[in-house]
């Protein structure tokens, strides 16, 4: 299924039958990816007296309740409402779903006890001046990113300067394979979130951050078409399914 997309006077041809899914699925398991010190997701049948919402238990349908946190339990997309006093919904902030995106691979640099993604790390890898979205794949890119237990691991993070630089490039949508663009324990400073969203001076209400993706090594660095799909949650964040399409 070949289609051509025209954007800013440039044509891009993609094959819609060959999506590249960079989301991490949610599972009711201790092996599910996790962060922020909470229990694993739960997917359980509804019970009502002797009735159990499960076909194998005699019900006509499977009827599960799912308990999870989008920030902790898988790929999710968030808006500036994640850090504001007033409510802002990702479902209202994200109104368009296809973008030109660049995938870059970055090796975080050691800085005292931390590993950080600096402005130079980003600047040295970006090749496009027209991308609306940026995907950061951190190196090493091991498969256990898909089920890693991140709590108390002090994961790599973006410096304030790196996040501000990305914002100044007019990147509206930032995607990364970590639980947060910020340091795990930063006393609530959230410097990278604030720099990317230009908060509080002039908030970028339509800009989004997607965290906990996994970019398989079969996906090369370069330009793609991104389809950023979210569930229709009226919340600061939603589970999401970013899909890439190779430009032919």
Q: How much helix, percentage-wise, in residues?
A: 10-25%
- Tell me how many strands there are: 17
What's the average pLDDT?
97
- Our estimate of the beta-strand percent is 25-35%
Biggest sheet, spatial arrangement of strands: 8-15-14-12-9-16-17
Q: How many helical stretches?
A: 4
Overall shape: globular
Low-confidence parts lasting 5 or more residues at pLDDT below 50? none
Question: SSE order, as H and E?
Answer: EEEEEEEEHEEEHEEHEHEEE
Largest sheet: 7 strands, mixed, barrel
Tell me the structural class.
mainly beta
Distance between the termini: 12 Å
Q: What would you note in describing this structure?
A:
The two termini are 12 Å apart. The chain has helices spanning 90-93, 119-123, 160-168, 191-197; strands spanning 2-7, 10-15, 20-21, 42-45, 47-48, 51-52, 64-67, 76-78, 98-106, 109-111, 114-117, 133-138, 157-158, 173-176, 208-211, 222-230, 237-246. The chain is built from 4 helices and 17 strands. 10% of the residues lie in helices and 32% in strands. It has 248 residues and is mainly β. The longest helix has 9 residues, at 160-168. The strands form 5 sheets. Strands 8-15-14-12-9-16-17 form a 7-stranded mixed beta barrel. A 3-stranded mixed β-sheet has the order 10-11-13.
Spell out the key features of this protein.
7-stranded mixed beta barrel
């Amino acid at each position: 299924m070949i289609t051509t997309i025209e954007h800013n006077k440039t044509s891009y041809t993609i094959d819609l039958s060959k999506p590249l899914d960079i989301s991490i699925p949610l599972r009711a398991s201790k092996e599910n990816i996790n962060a922020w010190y909470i229990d694993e997701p739960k997917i359980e049948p509804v019970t009502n007296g002797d009735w159990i919402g499960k076909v194998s238990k005699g019900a006509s349908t499977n009827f599960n309740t799912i308990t999870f946190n989008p920030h902790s339990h898988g790929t999710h997309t968030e808006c500036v409402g994640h850090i504001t006093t007033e409510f802002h919904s990702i479902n209202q902030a994200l109104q368009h779903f296809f973008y030109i995106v660049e995938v870059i691979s970055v090796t975080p640099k050691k800085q005292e006890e931390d590993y950080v993604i600096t402005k130079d790390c980003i600047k040295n890898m970006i090749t496009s001046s027209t991308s609306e979205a940026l995907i950061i794949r951190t190196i090493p890119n091991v498969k256990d990113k898909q089920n890693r237990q991140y709590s108390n691991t002090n994961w790599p993070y973006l410096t304030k300067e790196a996040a501000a630089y990305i914002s100044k490039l007019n990147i509206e949508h930032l995607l990364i394979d970590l639980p947060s663009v910020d340091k795990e324990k930063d006393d609530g400073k959230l410097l990278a979130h604030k720099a990317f969203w230009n908060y509080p001076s002039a908030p970028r209400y339509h800009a989004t951050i997607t965290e906990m993706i996994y970019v398989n090594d079969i996906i090369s660095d370069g330009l793609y078409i991104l389809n950023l799909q979210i569930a229709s949650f009226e919340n600061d964040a939603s589970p999401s399914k970013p899909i890439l399409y190779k430009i032919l």
